[in-house]
């Protein structure tokens, strides 16, 4: 439930202020729950209208055009993501191969027989 001022309702509906004030009077006279008042910062009473009382027309959108555009967009996005995944898998394979080589070299150095009186420098 969203409460709107008369000015906000004017912008949404495109109707004049006098038309909306007439509608507010009619709703007030019928003790409608869609009208309430609030005291503003300046001490004046502000009338608030529930948006359900305004019967705001829904904007019609051609879904078939949007659906086909969205499908094309998501197909492109999926293709890009698949390419990224393939590239990352190749990089992972290369890193694993490098890691295996390095592990073998380190293991060779660890297992090398140690000579007595042998220096590194």
The CATH architecture designation of the largest domain is: Alpha-Beta Complex
Taking the sheet with the most strands, its summary is: 3 strands, antiparallel
Give the spatial strand order of the biggest sheet: 1-3-2
- The CATH class of the largest domain, by name, is Alpha Beta
Poorly predicted parts: none
Strand content: 5-15%
Overall shape: it is elongated
Distance between the termini: 82 Å
Number of contiguous helices: 3
3D structure, described in words:
By secondary structure, the chain is mostly helical. It has 2 domains: 3-53, Molybdopterin biosynthesis moea protein, domain 2, CATH 3.90.105; 61-110. 58% of the residues lie in helices and 12% in strands. The protein has helices at 6-13, 17-29, 63-111, and strands at residues 3-5, 35-39, 45-50. It has a 3-stranded antiparallel sheet with strand order 1-3-2. A hairpin with a 5-residue loop joins β2 and β3 (45-50). It is elongated and about 110 Å long. 4% of the residues are buried. The model has no long low-confidence stretch (mean pLDDT 83).
């Amino acid at each position: 439930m969203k409460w709107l001022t008369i000015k906000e309702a004017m912008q949404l509906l495109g109707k004049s202020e006098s038309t909306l004030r007439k509608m507010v009077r009619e709703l007030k006279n019928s003790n409608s729950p869609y009208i309430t008042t609030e005291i503003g910062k300046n001490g004046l009473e502000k009338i608030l209208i529930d948006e359900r009382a305004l019967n705001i027309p829904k904007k019609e959108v051609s879904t078939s055009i949007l659906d086909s555009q969205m499908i094309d967009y998501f197909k492109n996005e999926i293709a890009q993501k698949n390419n990224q995944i393939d590239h990352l898998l190749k990089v992972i394979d290369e890193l694993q191969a490098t890691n295996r080589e390095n592990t073998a070299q380190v293991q060779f150095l660890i297992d090398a027989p140690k000579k007595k009186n042998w220096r590194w420098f």
